């Protein structure tokens, strides 16, 4: 009789949903393009077309719409983060290279993946465009409808085949619930936008101000810098001192929040996929173990291969147990990396704002502008890929450490070899302690006999000046041959520590694992540095505040000038049109600068040729 899990797998082996999610991804481009065209039609272009341009008939419609500002967006950050989270399943689909709509050679797979990335981005473009659009009444309706379509199709796909072939019951729900949660959040967000914009349209509520050039937290940061006497800080709690302290003068941009949310969901999905693969491999190993037991029973446990087979069975059982136990520690390690990267981003940005670049390698003090611009586009995708691959590598390293502990400590006790294990552990500990003790003895001898006394009572250590030189030369000669052997162990320990730290920190894109002088070979760290510089140059609170002061002053001067001209137009003097005044000022400018006449466009407007001829005549006289 089949078990419940086996019956579930057998049932879902023939379960075929009527909705193919990959095919729906292709068809979702139709409403996506429609929404993009509607929002583009509503978007006004800043530059008006002239009569000679081919796009003149479009007027000032069909402006370029952006999904979100990757550098200067500090509002609706969690909405954008949930929009990124809704793409998690498709991102993992691309990460596994399961997107194969075309049969192309191996060398052209990069182009296929590029097309797949563009298609996924285009299918989810309406989520971001509707959140960032100025026309919230229309965009909220379109965004709600599009999110509802994705939510309904996903729920229909789950209800038809809720179970899977690997985990068993509710496997499909396990993979799709993060996307459903993000889509439900977007539905609520678009509904809130619709209610708010409808109240504004009906006049029941005042319209909210447009996106300010200077954010509130940036202004607080500048005020904090200009404050003469710093305020007395309150006593920090344990959480603020050891883990994280919230700063009202600093906000993470939407790019960082969206990257963290998407990386967390992708990490969860990657862990779930890895567990499904483990279940499949475990079942295959169980079948292989059954065959080994059959062989042992057939030879009545007297065959020559029986001890080897028993050791192989033990290795498989230990490996399966260690792999399962280390799933959670590896997952939590990568999750802690995500939060630690955010903390490092804030710390590095503060240092750059203060003009401190000492934490960067020397070659990154003046990075290339083009590479920095590319880095801002690479960072989010690379951060997610580094986290996923880092989880797998960390899991393997932790499993190897678990195997070492099992075979070094646990299994000897199980096999009644505890005394031998303790004897070997004691001998190894004594050997390492002896080697370290001899190294410390060398340092003590050098401090006591081969360095001159301190020059002052306040000195923390002796000066680097030799004493007892003859004894020092004999000391070096006799330890020369011993240090050759000691250097072999030091070299192996260097290699082991480098491998462990490199594998442990592979997911940390904010920290290079290369040696000093070779940091440029770490492409992930280069992307991190370039991203920091782009954010530093475009979101520096002091720079933004300075530009805000200039823009505000310019607007005030224009307003005062407009008020003055309004009073002039209301006087009894003959009224002069703005066009005539502009053309008169243009005439004066070109008469005083005759060389500018030849640089004027031939399609500058009606009568421009006659106007240019008059200017040439005036310049000759």
Automatic annotation (TrEMBL):
It is found in: Cell membrane. The keyword RNA-binding does not apply. One of its GO terms (molecular function) is retinol transmembrane transporter activity. InterPro entries: STRA6-like. Keywords: Cell membrane, Membrane, Receptor, Transmembrane, Transmembrane helix, Transport. The chain crosses the membrane at residues 24-42, 107-128, 135-153, 173-191, 261-281, 322-345, 386-410, 430-451, 479-507. It is a multi-pass membrane protein. GO terms for cellular component: plasma membrane. It comes from the Eukaryota. Its main location: membrane. The keyword Zinc does not apply. One of its GO terms (biological process) is vitamin A import into cell. This is Stimulated by retinoic acid gene 6 protein-like. The lineage of its organism: Eukaryota, Metazoa, Chordata, Craniata, Vertebrata. The gene is LOC106843911.
